[in-house]
Design goal:
The structure is a single chain. The protein is α/β, with parallel strands linked by helices and about 525 residues long. Helices cover about 35% and strands about 25% of the residues. The protein has a seven-stranded mixed beta sheet, sandwiched between helices. α13 crosses α14, α13 (about 380-390) runs parallel beside α15 and α14 packs across α15. It is globular, with a radius of gyration of 23 Å.
């Protein structure tokens, strides 16, 4: 395939060049002689659909993977990058899409891990470490206690800590893989201000994201990958968004590997209705989910909420407002200390996720890798997990497991070479499709989704939003959390703004004429 690049004059020196990079997993070639470079003092966006090879290419640069062929040049000299230590020694650091923090350590310990300040006797200076971490977080305008243990914190705080850790290092090249997936608009803008400062100081930044508005706000150049190849590189000013999307998708979006179909497919996984049918489906007025005076050990305080059958309710709010804490309590991950949860007119006692699943409640968690999947297990076994957890299955039928996996792959266009492939080897977006698809197989009454499109490409985002509308139109209740306010406006019938673990206000979707208007409401303006 022909690769093109916009010619530019008087470009700065190249900080990192990757030439002819080749990489295969289990005999499947995922990088096909890819060339990529980033110059000093630029933000270079790396785009492509899930599975295009973006993260794999950057993990070679970070020393996580050893390529099958090609070379990496830093400041014009070939450099072997066989480990993360090699990358750091050459001034390269990366914020992975998958978190790399240690949950039993504090925020400060994670930020300065391996670079802890020492006393004159060589011991770790805890006070200095906390002080340094507090300053780094303050530069990002984040109110987070550096003494907090990572484990209990929400994924948004993990994201911030990962970014703080990377920005605190003495690096010349910074790779950011979906860094704003869990951040609000204000938090994203603070990060962008920091990125611009680093760029102006001469740092080279590779920025991976599926959010096009962000790309055109922060990037200087764009490289698009598709099917393991570099398709095109050009300046943002010369590369219209329509051409970027066309290059990402190709002339025709490729289909997932053909699978054998079951004789009696789940109706939610069969050919979908049109978007108009999903949006205009019947609306019932009775609440399917009722929450009264809910208190939880994780900060929910006297919260009331109704969600009707056939309704999509979007949850908006700042970091720490209680969005993730609410759905975690409803699903039994965090302890409910007072209040009632009612599903379909029946009070349900939820002490753990199994109770929630048996009551017909499903959750797509914010952190898919830690809480949504068993990474070492196959697509097949992950697809079967909710049915086993619900008590509907006491044993695993090989044939039925295979059919479940085939339905998920076909319905959500999962890119995988086989149903037996470990989900940990799939791209982040394809992993998310497995998380969503496995719950659709169970046909829950209430579907809770926390940042369901984080790290997912444009085509998959639209498909997932349409599936949620279709799911609601079938008479079910949906709660969606998203930091992308435009996404909430698109999919929600009502938007509930949370603050300090309580409902602050409720709006109908038509009350907002723009994302900015909703943003002001979230800010309390």
């Amino acid at each position: 395939m022909q690769q093109t690049e916009t010619t530019e004059t008087a470009r700065p020196p190249v900080a990192v060049a990757m030439r002819g990079m080749k990489m295969s997993f289990a005999g499947v070639q995922v990088l096909k002689e890819v060339d990529f470079e980033v110059t000093r003092g630029e933000v270079h966006a790396l785009l492509g659909e899930n599975g295009a090879g973006k993260s794999t290419l950057m993990k070679i640069l970070e020393g996580v993977y050893t390529p099958d062929g090609g070379e990496v040049l830093i400041n014009g000299k070939p450099v072997p990058l066989e480990s993360g230590l090699d990358a750091k020694a050459n001034g390269i650091t990366m914020v992975f899409q998958e978190f790399s923090l240690i949950p039993t350590l504090t925020v400060a310990q994670n930020i300065l891990l391996g670079r802890e300040p020492r006393t004159s006797l060589g011991f770790i200076d805890e006070g200095m470490m906390i002080s340094q971490a507090r300053k780094i977080l303050a530069d990002l305008n984040v109110d987070l206690d550096p003494r907090s243990e990572m484990g209990p914190l929400a994924a948004s705080y993990w994201q911030i800590t990962e970014i703080a850790k990377a920005l605190s290092q003495d690096a010349n090249v910074l790779v950011l893989d979906e860094p704003t997936a869990s951040l609000t608009k204000d938090e994203t803008e603070t990060l962008f201000q920091r990125i611009r400062m680093l760029r102006d100081a001469g740092m080279s930044i590779v920025y991976i994201s599926h959010r096009m508005a962000e790309i055109y706000d922060i990037a200087d150049r764009i490289t698009v990958m598709r099917n393991g190849r570099r398709i095109r590189t050009g300046a943002v000013s010369d590369y219209p968004v329509g051409e970027v999307i066309a290059d990402m998708l190709g002339e025709q979006k490729e289909r997932a590997p053909k699978q054998h179909e079951s004789a009696a497919p789940n109706p939610l996984l069969s050919s979908p209705a049109s978007s108009a049918q999903a949006l205009d489906g019947p609306r019932q007025t009775r609440p399917l989910l009722q929450i009264r005076d809910l208190h939880s050990a994780n900060g929910i305080s006297g919260l009331d909420l109704d969600v009707r059958a056939g309704e999509v309710v979007g949850l908006a709010g700042l970091m720490g407002s209680g969005r993730s804490e609410l759905v975690r309590a409803i699903f039994g991950i965090d302890r409910i200390t007072n209040g009632t949860v009612c599903v379909g007119g029946q009070d349900v006692k939820i002490q753990n996720p199994r109770d929630a699943i048996r009551a017909g409640i499903a959750l797509v968690p914010e952190d898919r890798r830690m809480e949504g999947l068993v990474l070492d297990h196959s697509v097949e076994t992950n697809s079967e997990l909710p049915l086993i957890a619900s008590g509907r299955r006491n044993w695993i039928s090989t044939g039925e497991t295979l059919r479940c996996a085939q339905h998920v792959i076909k319905r959500l266009d999962v890119r995988t070479s086989s149903t037996g492939k470990a989900v940990g080897l799939l791209s982040g977006g394809n992993q998310q499709k497995i998380v969503i698809g496995k719950w659709l197989l169970m046909e829950p009454k209430v579907f809770l989704l926390d940042e369901p499109t984080a790290g997912i490409d444009i085509g998959a985002k639209k498909e997932i939003m349409r599936i949620l509308r279709q799911f609601a139109a079938s008479g079910k209740a949906v709660i969606v959390i998203s930091s992308e306010l435009e996404e909430l406006l698109e999919v929600s019938d009502r938007i509930v703004v949370l603050r300090n673990g309580r409902v602050d206000d409720t709006y109908r979707g038509h009350q907002f004429t723009s994302e900015e208007a909703l943003h002001r409401a979230v800010q309390g303006v």
